[in-house]
Design a protein that fits this description.
The protein is an alpha/beta fold. The chain has 3 domains: about 80 residues, Winged helix-like DNA-binding domain superfamily/Winged helix DNA-binding domain (Arc Repressor Mutant, subunit A); about 100 residues, D-Maltodextrin-Binding Protein, domain 2 (3-Layer(aba) Sandwich); about 100 residues, D-Maltodextrin-Binding Protein, domain 2 (3-Layer(aba) Sandwich), CATH 3.40.190. Helices cover about 40% and strands about 25% of the residues. The chain contains 9 helices and 13 strands. Strand 3, helix 5 and strand 4 form a beta-alpha-beta unit. The longest helix has 24 residues. The N and C termini lie far apart (about 60 Å). About 25% of the residues are buried. Pfam families: HTH_1, LysR_substrate. InterPro entries: LysR-type_TF_proteobact-type, LysR_HTH_N, LysR_subst-bd, WH-like_DNA-bd_sf, WH_DNA-bd_sf. This is LysR family transcriptional regulator. Belongs to the LysR transcriptional regulatory family. Keywords: DNA-binding, Transcription, Transcription regulation.
Length: about 300
Amino acid sequence: MQERPLIDLQTLRIFMAVADQVSFVGASRKLGLSATTVTRTIRNLETTLGLSLFNRTTRSVHLTTEGAEFLVRCRAAIADLDGAVAVARGAGTEPQGVLSITAPVIFGRLHVLPVVTDLLKAWPQLTIRLFLTDRVVHLVEEGIDLAIRIAPPQDSALKMQKIGEVRKVFVASPAYLAQHGEPQSLENLAAHSLIDIDEYATGHSEWRLGGKNEPSVRISPRLYVNSIDAALAAARDGLGITRALSYQTHDSIEKKQLCRVLADIPTSALPVFMLFPARERQSVNVRMFLTAMKERFMTGTF
């Protein structure tokens, strides 16, 4: 049986660059190669593998399903190899190369970005890719080194470290409370104008103080939105009371645009975790970021 030719590291790095840049020309500029070289390399790689890695049109280049799966494995293999080379060269104790992180949008902006900027100032050889999104990102499949998650994660294949807690809070503008008064109990919320985050706007909402066993109240909100930013903006405009997590309301409360409602009623804490793939040896970049985040949030609740 005829053996397939070996694939060299330069070819894999070119493939990863095309995937990252979503462009042959962009990859060629990033790598300092001609577009012809990049295009020919990818064509030869596809021939060697016996499959198409990219869907090409005159305007765009996108990974095929097989290409996306191949990219995940390439990232993991190259990251492990680069780490081994760094250790062999004695550079394994200093952060360098690329670290990919994902976090919820508001939490990331308020609490992750400051850590990221401090690390970039301290380590000039380090590059960080920060993805702020409220969807659940699959770390291995999407080439992410580390994720910040709120509430216990479901993926048992990931390692996790708790860095703090957040709590559910109810807020409204000072103007709304001056006009309508402040509810004195969870049940009183039903008599107020409420703003709910509900992607499907079913009209059958329920607010509770914490987990499944905590007290709850059925509500009929006047406004349904599908993002926390929109809910808080409507609350600041005086439309009514909304529910959010403590870190999401911090800025508006500090600026006196919003006030806590039912602040004396205890709510369940939701843990904040850092998650990362369960590899045998974590890179110096991951270890450094974990340490920096834990140091920042030793105080506990956000």
